[in-house]
Amino acid sequence: MKVTARSSAYLILLGFFLLSAGMLASETELSTKLTGKVVGAPDCISTLKMTAGHAEISIAPGDSTETRLTIDDVQCGASYIRLEVEDLPSEYYTFAPSYLRTLTPGDVGRFIIYLDIPLDAEYKAYTATYKLYTSEGRYTGPEFTLSIEDIEKPQLSARTEFISEGSTQEEEDDTQFWWLIMLGSVIFVAAIHASEYFENKLHENEPKRKSRTSGKTTLRSLVKKERAKEEKDVKRVERALKKRKKK
Prior knowledge:
The protein has helices at residues 5-35, 171-246; strands spanning 47-52, 56-59, 64-75, 78-86, 93-96, 100-103, 109-116, 125-134, 137-148, 155-157. By secondary structure, the chain is an alpha+beta fold. The strands form two sheets. A six-stranded mixed β-sheet has the order 6-4-8-9-2-10, with no helix packed on it. α1 runs antiparallel to α2.
């Protein structure tokens, strides 16, 4: 079988189309499986990992700063997740959001903790502990030290642990990307098909044009032959008349 450039383009575009369709189908199936999991099912124990944004925070009375708590490596899922900071005066902090509705395997959740120290706060070091309360149970997280000191500027010290082991991709961006690939494949195939259609039509009309041209040529040649015959007949008559006059 002869493989042309057009057929190769068809095969390549078909491959892109099938790949996009497969990726969209797999993403849909994965999403269905994740959202379809029963949180707290008997055969699955819900677990998660908490990572503190800062292990130590130094701040002066009257100043404010913020840190965060990241939740990832979720197993089986967790729902209605609330945060508490133990062993730290409640008037020293607030956090947002107020709670996380649901985390499924692969999700990453974050709480931002806003620290606002009163101007008359006591110089003291607090060792606070993060705790999460969910519909599936209670989880105790890492500790951090809040030192209220007489310093000029608020400082955040010590190491910073940041989120998860590996990057996460946005499902919506992936879906849009594969939909664009599919749409582009369809448009290219349609364009090639249209060009092929018009090219075939052009080839079909070519014999008709040739036949019309050849027909005109044949008609002209017949007219010329008839005129030549008439001229010969006229000449014959003239010759005959001349011969009679001479006699």
